[in-house]
Fold this protein.
Amino acid sequence: MPIAKHSVVEDIFALVCAGLFVAFGVHLFQSQDLMVGGAAGLALLGTYAFSANFGLIFFLINLPFYALAWTQISRRFTINTFVSVTTVSVLSEQLPRFVDISHANPLFAAVFGGILIGVGMLIMFRHASSLGGVGILAFFLQAKYNLRAGYFQLAVDSLILLSSLFFIAWPLVLISILAAVCLNMVISLNHRPERYEPKKKEAAAPVMTNTPHPQNG
């Protein structure tokens, strides 16, 4: 039985919700000078190095990766990722107008923020989308080579967090590592497409049944 695709309305609603999860997680991190991995982490590094706007840097960093998504994954994935990235870019700049975090324990901000971003990314993955950048590479590698997205992203995030030592104090980097672990555990434990896609009937030649299909919802 084929898996029904999500409708355009379902995709848009889900991706806006996911963007809000991610934006609020980033807002928690920024309130405590914590770091995050992926393209969002690179954007945060940019804000520390150049005092630039997070939303703008995050949006610009992702532009080159759309070519990979368009040519190697699918047009739907590329469009959905563009929606996700734009949503996070806009919401991350607007959230401080509505939410003022005057005090938060850094450990709580790291754990809860990491979980929020992880859940947001999980929703994006389920709707053939990502946060762009490393997320596009993670989605592509899992789809083509069955390399677990969470583990790949954790390795890249570790490099980004090590780079943040040039800009923030090492205790905050250690707490940020905890956030990265929480984020990637959410993805690695829950983004398992082979658990949700029905297995194909055996044919004359063996076929892989556990490879995720970006065009499916």
